[in-house]
Here is the input.
Amino acid sequence: MHGKRILLIIGGGIAAYKSLDLIRRLRERGATVRCVLTEGGAQFVTPLSVSALSEQPVYTDLFSLKDETEMGHIRLSREADVVLVCPATADLLARMAAGLAGDLASTLLLATDKPVLAVPAMNVRMWQHPATRRNVARLREDGIAILDPAEGPMACGEFGPGRLPEVPDIVNWVAARLEEAPRPLSGTKILVTAGPTHEPIDPVRYIANRSSGKQGYALAEALARLGASVTLVSGPTHLPTPPGVTRVNVETAREMAAACQQALPVDAAVCVAAVADWRVEASDQKIKKDAGGTPQLTFLENPDILATLSQAAENRPRLVVGFAAETENVIPHAQAKIARKGCDWIVANDVSPAAGVMGGERNAVHLITSTGVETWPEAAKADVAQKLAERIAHALAESR
Here is the structure.
């Protein structure tokens, strides 16, 4: 959804309050959202709240001299990749089916040449009424995509189909509709590692690090959106599996190494996981504090997953990307790592406590390749993931 332009028409129903969360989540996925607030919609949410979340002007009046001067309704209907009606009330669906153009929303819907998506929400009796069923059937015949409402309790006290689907489900549905066009990574297989590893000391203790897995999960999702078949080998995290991604759960570095080998062959491997460099000879029983003195732990070196993938004689991916989490001399350390491991790219970042990257929502990285160093500005991890996914797509296309 990164870079997509969505025109959101907010209808007048109690479900309109969910449009605020919808705007936020669409923007989190990288979309630009412009909003048209109907007269009914303005009874439930204010133009100020919609504008604050979208960071765009809110359009309400077909005959606004200011809006028509700065952004005419025809231009507004054309400068979008998709028009999303949410919530789509029974009245708004009827206007759409009849081809009316009596207000800004219905005029835009009649004037647009872009795909139109509608998410109905209304009382169960209204949804099941023959007139609504006829209107929905007509709209589908006209090429408008409609997400059927969910079933459940309603604000009016009744129960049945008519509830607005959950906002994440709406976002995923919109993303799927936008992705029906050919995608640059279609037909490719990509391996992504993410999260920390846990190296046991005894049955109840382990060595770990502060990696949350967020950057790796965001990258796996971005690659899948571009059409790749993604295998995500994940250490322990609390994150949900990204849509369209095959997830393999592991705990230790040795388990992660084995899972990566199992996933081969792939076109690209991106090692985002913060893999423990060492493990200890774990005790079969809990080490007791009263055993006398401080326990002596014997450290053993873990397998080097990035080097193994980079230096493989067989099944080496066409592109191997490593991550370098550093606390000082970020670029020199990363340049030494790319030479030592034999990978194609290194994505380096500062993970010192002051940076707030470990477990945070934002990242600032340096992309190190054979052609030099690119320093990317700080951005949300989802945006960093999207930019890196697009670069990977470009590199794989060139290597063909």
User: Anything to note?
Assistant: The CA atoms of residues 196 and 300 lie 18 Å apart.
